[in-house]
């Protein structure tokens, strides 16, 4: 891993500006409503923490674990680990916060799962939208950047658990 250096795709400055815009928009849209943000770990944690700082209205927060990646390839295994207190979901407006929307399978499954817990509404917020891989139609109300069909790391996204700590979004190209 020491020799592998991701090529910058989206700078830390651009990410910060876009996260600020998303936080302001969510604050406006949910003013006066009971809001809960649910971050999809581990990849979305950096994005979710920065987004939380930019939302100016009261809200509740939780983390859900869902994964389908192994290395740079999608896995057929899909796991959800989430045991929320009912007061975090029932009757509240929910925003699922994820790092990347690619095939749509993860966010679609999470949306159906959360809907089964009786929220008022469920929306999606992703940092990155990679529509070239979409196989499931997922409506994402809030998104940061549209990206090309590249394997990306940084700002929480990883390659075998490496590179989550990069302050920018980088591309790993296999040689």
Task: Provide a descriptive summary of the structure in words.
By secondary structure, this protein is α/β, with parallel strands linked by helices. It has a single domain, classed as 3-Layer(aba) Sandwich (Rossmann fold). The protein has helices spanning 12-29, 45-54, 86-89, 105-115; strands spanning 7-10, 35-41, 60-70, 73-81, 93-101, 121-129, 142-146, 151-153, 169-172. The strands form two sheets. Strands 4-3-2-5-6-7 form a six-stranded mixed sheet, with helices on both faces. A hairpin with a 2-residue loop joins β3 and β4. The longest helix is centred in the N-terminal third of the chain and has 18 residues, at 12-29. The protein is globular, with a radius of gyration of 16 Å.
Explain briefly what this protein structure is.
The protein is an alpha/beta fold and 175 residues long. Helices cover 25% and strands 35% of the residues. The chain has a single domain (7-27, 35-66, 87-163), classed as Rossmann fold (3-Layer(aba) Sandwich), CATH 3.40.50.2020.
CATH architecture annotation name: 3-Layer(aba) Sandwich
What is the third-level CATH name, the topology? Rossmann fold
Counting helices, strands and paired strands, the structural category is alpha/beta
Helix content: 10-25%
Main sheet? 6 strands, mixed
Taken as a percent bin, the fraction of beta residues is: 25-35%
Using DSSP, what is the number of strands? 9
Radius of gyration: 16 Å
Instruction: Let me know the average pLDDT.
Output: 89
Task: Look at the structure and give the CATH class.
Answer: Alpha Beta
Q: Uncertain runs with pLDDT below 50, 5 residues or more? A: none
Order of strands in the sheet with the most strands?
Answer: 4-3-2-5-6-7
Any idea what the shape is?
A: globular
First-last Cα distance: 14 Å
Query: How many structural domains can be distinguished in the coordinates?
Result: 1
